[in-house]
DNA sequence: TCTTTTTATCGTAATATTACAATATAATGG
DNA sequence: CCATTATATTGTAATATTACGATAAAAAGA
């Protein structure tokens, strides 16, 4: 089949899965890291840094944008990308809550 | 092409991506939630709860196991699954550090 | 041993993802 | 307007993922 049965899961489960999927690629993690380390918006320098074709990076940026993790503003000829603080914070809290919800049980195998 | 260029990324980037990918599906999030909420190992009840075929769930469990997020112990006829506390904690810390590394920059678009 | 129960694996179809070349688009500078 | 620069989109090939039916495997009980 190949298509996820979205309808049988909760809104929250689907939302979290979509966000995680957007982050779940080394190139996209690398992109996020670069934006974060630059501590400003990144305009164009991404293609030289990563060893991927321009089209591929554009595609990855699009996915990050679709997930709401980054935002791009047109700055003359180039586009400047930065983290979308609201979504970033939201996902951080959501994930943190998820990880914290696990308490090592007393009676387990 | 269809295959990720793992070799051009760092060890850390690849590791994090693999873990996130393992979590990045609503069914696998649902499975993790169930194990966590049960607060003990889950033996078999997963198929009835989720609306997916037994083979599909077994496949998802395998991926979570491969990523080291859960562990399964054979308990008579059935297999009991629980969170792998070490990996869980590791991923939690890793992700938390990643999210915290972002500081909203002063000069941005 | 035979049956039952539970989980894993195999085979397969449908769809998604990843990557890149080629090309399009959009803004700037001459 | 034309060339340049930066990014997006399109088309396409290779591979991965998702899902399920069918079947295998493994342990328990009759």
UniProtKB/TrEMBL annotation, chains A, B:
Pfam families: HTH_5. Keywords: DNA-binding, Transcription, Transcription regulation. It comes from the Bacteria. PANTHER family: ARSENICAL RESISTANCE OPERON REPRESSOR ARSR-RELATED. InterPro entries: ArsR-like_HTH (IPR011991), HTH_ArsR_DNA-bd_dom (IPR001845), Metal_resp_trans_reg (IPR051011), WH-like_DNA-bd_sf (IPR036388), WH_DNA-bd_sf (IPR036390). SUPFAM superfamilies: Winged helix' DNA-binding domain. The keyword Chaperone does not apply. This is Metalloregulator ArsR/SmtB family transcription factor. The lineage of its organism: Bacteria, Pseudomonadati, Bacteroidota, Sphingobacteriia, Sphingobacteriales. CDD domains: HTH_ARSR. It comes from Hufsiella ginkgonis. Residues 8-102 form the HTH arsR-type domain.
């Amino acid at each position: 089949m190949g298509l996820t049965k979205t309808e049988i899961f909760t809104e929250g489960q689907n939302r979290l899965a979509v966000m995680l999927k957007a982050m779940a690629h080394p190139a996209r993690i690398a992109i996020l890291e670069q934006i974060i380390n630059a501590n400003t918006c990144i305009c164009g320098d991404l293609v030289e840094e990563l060893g991927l074709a321009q089209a591929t990076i554009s595609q990855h940026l699009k996915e990050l944008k679709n997930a709401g993790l980054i935002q791009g503003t047109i700055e003359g000829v180039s586009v400047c990308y930065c983290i979308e603080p609201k979504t970033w914070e939201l996902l951080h809290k959501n994930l943190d809550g998820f990880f914290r919800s696990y308490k090592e049980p007393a009676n387990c195998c």
